[in-house]
Amino acid sequence: MQEKPKAPAGRADSKAKPASGKGETSAAVKSTEAADTVIKLSHPDKLLWPQEKISKQGLLDHYALVWPRMHQFVVDRPLSLVRAPDGVDGQRFFQKHASAGMHEKIARMKDPTDGEEILFIRDFDGVAALVQLGVVEIHIWGCTIDELDKPDQIIFDLDPDEGVDVKAVRAAALEIHGRLDALSLPNFVKTSGGKGYHVVVPLKPSADWDEVKDFAHDFARALEQAAPDRYTATLSKKARTGKIFVDYLRNGRGSTTVAPYSSRAKKGATASMPAIWAEVEAGLAPNAFPIGDKTTLKQLAKADPWADFFKQGKPLKRG
């Protein structure tokens, strides 16, 4: 894959500042050390979201603010990257392997199953290196690099067809919440940053990918069978007309989903933000949290809704 941006200009100690200069919101960050990085951004004022005036530095500021909450979901996990070196209005491409100019803080390993290269990060320097490359979305596997064949989460990505009302998507998320509760499976919700919600189940790593994907597929099909006018478990455009696609395909080995707190390459410069179910019930929109916006900063001043995500994980049992 061709590399558009130049290699980083070198190392320098820098500290990201809270987005929009609103220093009072830094109370949401437990430690200012999280913002330290050896990565020097080239062209920090370059606008990655031109209409929203969000620059590379603004994106790094966002990650500095959320890092105490975000790190457990992105450190030591296989990554896939959406890059837009010239901003989201320019060319975007998906990247899974290393390329020229990639900083050493973006680590690499070989997948022992097929020998494919895997990218991962170990710390905040890794996120800063991603920002330097013009990464506008960080996608994760549902496992760690130490347990590549044992997922530690199940993801249900609600993807509505054009024209489906957001109230219907919200109702779908709440229905999934209720069904998972009935199965005694802990479940969490985050905004997608786009049109839908992501419902995520933490797991104690025990089941393999096939078992997890089969469970997710069966769950999605049960929703479809109960309300075929509202849901589909089929990917095709034709099957999705006027419905919500319950995307279970994120649960296969090598498949990815956007990380909690990641920015989205979408209008509005939104982030995929963890929330609590009561907020969804109260009408929280899927695109409610633009980077650096007061709504986002207010959300980050609240208690971390996903702090105990992995602690609540259970082994997946079938039958």
TrEMBL record:
Residue ranges of the region described as Disordered: 1-33
Database matches in InterPro entries: LigD_pol_dom, NHEJ_LigD, PaeLigD_Pol-like
Highest rank taxon of the organism: Bacteria
DNA ligase D polymerase domain location: 56-306
CDD domains, sorted: PaeLigD_Pol_like
Compositional bias (Basic and acidic residues): 1-16
Classification via Pfam families: LigD_Prim-Pol
PANTHER family: BIFUNCTIONAL NON-HOMOLOGOUS END JOINING PROTEIN LIGD
Identification of the protein by name: Bifunctional non-homologous end joining protein LigD
Organism, as annotated: Mesorhizobium muleiense
Taxonomic lineage: Bacteria, Pseudomonadati, Pseudomonadota, Alphaproteobacteria, Hyphomicrobiales
